[in-house]
Amino acid sequence: MRVLVAGASGAIGRAVVAELVRGGHDVVGLARGQAGADVVTSLGAQPVVADVLDRDGLLRALDGTTADAVVHEATALKKAPTHYRGSGITATNRLRTTGTAHLLEAARLVGATRFVVQSMVFGYGFVDHGPDLVTEDRPFGRARGAKSDAATAAFASAEAQALAAGGIALRYGFVYGQGPASDRIVSLLRRRAFPVPRGGGGSLGWLFVDDAATATRAAVERGRAGQAYNVVDDEPARWGEVFDAMADAAGAHRPPRVPGGLMRLIAPFLADQMIGTSMRVSNAKAGDELGWRPSVPTFRHGMEAGRRAWRTPGSLSSPGPAGSRRTPRS
Ligand SMILES: NC(=O)c1ccc[n+]([C@@H]2O[C@H](COP(=O)([O-])OP(=O)(O)OC[C@H]3O[C@@H](n4cnc5c(N)ncnc54)[C@H](OP(=O)(O)O)[C@@H]3O)[C@@H](O)[C@H]2O)c1
């Protein structure tokens, strides 16, 4: 299949490109400039330079390109301190709303009949979802809290547009892993600048970056039109457990504990994610319909897989998953 990937140079996008190439697909990767184009080329894909928020420029750049499928992995998290302030997510929200609309137009232009959009389990809402497993039947796009409303609405918009067009939405858990997937968090952990709420915070679904890539390839190849899939590992875990383990794997001190009230005051968006949200997410549908299983079943396996990369000087901005992939023992 010929697959056009938007966000091909990003933390998840480059893993997706590498996985698609590994699977024998012909990949065209969208990049905004030469640096991104070089990443795309190094992964064995063909770069096309365009900004997905510039509709006319995007369609012009793709004129004459053909593809069977389009994958939307474009986000704008790199420059924004999204982990602290809700305003940092605004540019990413635009990529989910306007960017999805433009990429659906691009998909029609290149003749693609499949469309896969990145979504996240946070779109279920920044609330405590209780002890029952959250399946894809739960209402999606439920909003709460001034800052986080916009993020939830953006996930809902991206999904609604894609699903209405017969596309597929992948509700990733919190993605982490080697290279750019966790470089910023690892560097914050090293400086003891990544806070964890006292008590460890809520539970969440986690996802090793290589598994985000295999699920995305499975969705491109086998996903059912108009369907959303949860893509998380097998074990819900609290923020405190996960980041204590990541700090240990990276050779950093245990993250500092912060009282919940203080976190809500200084980092409301982070508090909505870490304290306000708790969920146990089911990955059964992705297993049944996509035949996808996480190769990294729990965060403990993931930290072992990341340990070597995080402890190797200069490896934090390594270009992708190739070479650092590991199959953990359970
Ligand atoms: N992306 C995620 O979901 C994710 C997952 C785990 C962790 N993180 C955290 O977020 C940080 C940044 O993630 P990231 O490396 O994925 O960077 P990012 O800034 O979120 O960029 C992701 C991808 O989207 C592309 N993009 C952004 N705006 C675009 C636009 N207007 N038009 C076309 N493409 C556009 C980027 O291209 P350019 O290369 O041109 O900027 C890049 O390929 C990481 O260091 C990590 O801490 C992110």
Per-chain topology:
Elements: E1 2-6, H1 13-22, E2 26-31, H2 34-42, E3 46-49, H3 55-62, E4 69-72, H4 90-110, E5 114-120, E6 128-134, H5 146-164, E7 168-172, E8 174-176, H6 183-190, E9 196-197, E10 203-204, E11 206-208, H7 209-222, E12 228-231, E13 237-238, H8 239-250, E14 257-258, H9 260-266, H10 268-274, E15 278-281, H11 284-290, H12 299-311
Parallel strand pairs: 1-2, 1-4, 2-3, 4-5, 5-7, 6-15, 7-12, 8-11, 9-14
Antiparallel strand pairs: 10-13
The structure holds NADP nicotinamide-adenine-dinucleotide phosphate.
Key traits:
two-stranded parallel sheet, 12 helices, Rossmann fold, alpha/beta, 41% helix, binds NADP nicotinamide-adenine-dinucleotide phosphate, 330 residues
Mean pLDDT: 90
**Head-to-tail CA distance between termini:** 33 Å
> What is the helix tally?
12
Strand order of the largest sheet: 3-2-1-4-5-7-12
Looking at CATH, the homologous superfamily of one domain is NAD(P)-binding Rossmann-like Domain
Quick one: biggest sheet?
A: 7 strands, parallel
Describe the structure.
It is a single chain. By secondary structure, the chain is of the alpha/beta class. It has a domain at 2-177 and 206-234 and 281-294: 3-Layer(aba) Sandwich (Rossmann fold), CATH 3.40.50.720. Helices cover 41% and strands 18% of the residues. The protein contains twelve helices and 15 strands. It has helices at 13-22, 34-42, 55-62, 90-110, 146-164, 183-190, 209-222, 239-250, 260-266, 268-274, 284-290, 299-311; strands spanning 2-6, 26-31, 46-49, 69-72, 114-120, 128-134, 168-172, 174-176, 196-197, 203-204, 206-208, 228-231, 237-238, 257-258, 278-281. The strands form five sheets. Strands 3-2-1-4-5-7-12 form a seven-stranded parallel sheet, sandwiched between helices. A two-stranded parallel sheet has the order 6-15. Strands 8-11 form a two-stranded parallel sheet. Strand 2, helix 2 and strand 3 form a beta-alpha-beta unit. Helix 1 (13-22) packs across helix 7 (209-222), helix 3 runs parallel beside helix 4 and helix 9 packs across helix 10. 52% of the residues are buried.
